[in-house]
Amino acid sequence: MASTQEAAGNKSSEVSDEPTPAKQPRLDQPTASQESTAMQQHDFKKFRLVEILDNSQRAKYVALLGKFDTTDGISSSSSSSSQDGKNGEDSKSSSTSAILLLEKEAFPVEQLQQSQLGLSLFDHRQTVETVMHNDIWHKYRLPLESSFCLAKATLVHPATDRLAAKYRRRPCHLVVESPEDYRKRTEPALKSAGAKHSLAWVGNLLDGSAEADRLVFDDPDPAVGFVLHADLKWDGRRIDDLYCLAVCRVDGLHSLRQLGAQHLPLLENLMDKGRKALRDRYGVPLSQQRVFLHYQPSFYHLHAHFTHVSADWPGQQAERAHLVTEIINNIRLMPDYYQKATLTFPVKEGEPLYDAYKDQLDLL
Amino acid sequence: MASTQEAAGNKSSEVSDEPTPAKQPRLDQPTASQESTAMQQHDFKKFRLVEILDNSQRAKYVALLGKFDTTDGISSSSSSSSQDGKNGEDSKSSSTSAILLLEKEAFPVEQLQQSQLGLSLFDHRQTVETVMHNDIWHKYRLPLESSFCLAKATLVHPATDRLAAKYRRRPCHLVVESPEDYRKRTEPALKSAGAKHSLAWVGNLLDGSAEADRLVFDDPDPAVGFVLHADLKWDGRRIDDLYCLAVCRVDGLHSLRQLGAQHLPLLENLMDKGRKALRDRYGVPLSQQRVFLHYQPSFYHLHAHFTHVSADWPGQQAERAHLVTEIINNIRLMPDYYQKATLTFPVKEGEPLYDAYKDQLDLL
């Protein structure tokens, strides 16, 4: 649900932070369990790089497209019924293609604190590279000890071309949308694209038939009420990384563009009850909660994001996130602000809204 | 200048990406050169962790405070004249204290592309941990080969308590500032704090006596002109990470709060000439440039940030960055928008503005 719908911003957030206990075979020693369907083990020595789909300098993340050289050592064919395989040829060509999402692990601060490991962080058998010295400032490149050199890996295998396209980095542009643009370009593009999407999962959230275990708060009021869930992107442990999602109960509100004075009670209720619920559950002061809407949102049923102000999630940038305090202020200053405003939002090449605005963009 | 003044947001961006050729002694083998003042080498085996000052899950960054066990193997005392050492005692206590900023290196995509290394990424002597399997989705923890396990390190040594405080993570809060708050709290707090700061470096930028080598564009008009420099945070190589800073020539404009209809020519000139200069120099289309002001800014002389829309820099979040397209739109809708608006901004505990607003914040 939420995490699937919201994941477009950054795939690295899909890489799990919660490893579960499992067997630990060595990479170069295929074991009997690799042949079983219960717990297959891929032979990464046979993975050949075809394309780097994406990479992030900041998150230390790469998305790789590759192929397994042979079918030996590849996980059993029992799992080859790809959801994205549309036809026989697609399935066949994808049978050895794989997408490998890698993200370096963060420094394990708890471990450092407990053991006072200090410099057992480093591999003292390796060489250190001196970059520069200037007064009290010294720059080095230091080799890390192998236990600090793990990558969280998600392997999608077998993978189709459609899946590869999902993870491939595409150039992004900023669209500057006037009210007239909204009527003439955005609305028609969304209507024709939206026909393909189902929001059944939103209904399941609202009636409690899905993700009840992640529910934090439920305000049943049909006009101003909402359900607030811990987002699947968040592991629920580190409070500094808090990410929750509030889905409003009112139907027919698609985005920021429709908000006006009549929605002030809804927005104020979100800020009041939503933040207090997170304070009560997680101990986060109201003044440390960032509450915002996306424009454009990734699904067109009004919802708000709640994150810890210290959290460094994708989708919080100025061109996408609109603080609810700011929205309330704008509507108070000018009740039809969001019908009159020129709004900027990002689009990726190939998306329906990109095609709708392509002729307006400066593409060199 | 710019990078020093702007660095408050995230110290990890200070860690250089540009290693220069240097000797490569082994960490556990002190060499003769360690005793020389020309190229000292710290003995990281003698670094003992005292405190984890900061850490970022996303950037894989930690700031560590520690001490060197003895003075053996520590860089020569010729570099111990700390800029921050205020008195004898401070200098003495800091003589073995050190701050170590570590950031894992990103995956080297060029290297992967050239060599088709594929899975030489991984250390095949180490064990792989299986986290889960579900249909085509497989999660692992993979050991990385040692050449992909380097950390960019900045050692500040000797380090004072003041320097440690600079790198120590402090809780952050969102202030909601009404126009009245601005007059009664923000302005007085900034005036008393501002008396301590010099903006001489801004003058040096504007008259060309500093950083001329990083100048991208200069519009000499005293009313709407500006100088545009490549920011020191950016290495100038990866276009996706572009970061430039425009400093306006007009004097007396401190922040967003003062902008009105009379500044539309200045803002439009920035958007027009600044973006075109970056298109001409770096080939970045106008629609891929994010142009924004900070509120609160880190120094109170009007300046704008230009980044590539794909760049993942700190300080681009909705609570700090205001797109210039949005600012222009707001002033067109309501010429005194920024004098009437309620603006949200982040403050860190201990900052002058935090103290000015402490009683308004919800601190539990």
From TrEMBL, chains A, B:
Q: Which Gene3D superfamilies does its entry note?
A: HIT-like, Scavenger mRNA decapping enzyme, N-terminal domain
Magnesium found in the keyword field? no
Q: Which Pfam families match?
A: DcpS (PF05652), DcpS_C (PF11969)
Zinc found in the keyword field: no
Listed GO molecular functions? 5'-(N(7)-methyl 5'-triphosphoguanosine)-[mRNA] diphosphatase activity; RNA 7-methylguanosine cap binding
Q: Where in the cell is it found?
A: Nucleus
| Enzyme class, broadest EC rank | hydrolase
Annotated GO biological process: deadenylation-dependent decapping of nuclear-transcribed mRNA; mRNA processing
Give the UniProt keywords, A-Z.
Hydrolase, mRNA processing, Nucleus
**Reactions performed catalytically:** a 5'-end (N(7)-methyl 5'-triphosphoguanosine)-ribonucleoside in mRNA + H2O = N(7)-methyl-GMP + a 5'-end diphospho-ribonucleoside in mRNA + 2 H(+)
Return the EC number.
3.6.1.59
Annotated Gene Ontology cellular components are: nucleus; P-body
The family assignment reads: Belongs to the HIT family.
Summarizing the function annotation, the protein's role is: Decapping scavenger enzyme that catalyzes the cleavage of a residual cap structure following the degradation of mRNAs by the 3'->5' exosome-mediated mRNA decay pathway.
In its UniProt entry, what is this protein called? Answer: m7GpppX diphosphatase
Q: In which organism is this protein found?
A: Macrostomum lignano
Q: What is the lineage of its organism?
A: Eukaryota, Metazoa, Spiralia, Lophotrochozoa, Platyhelminthes
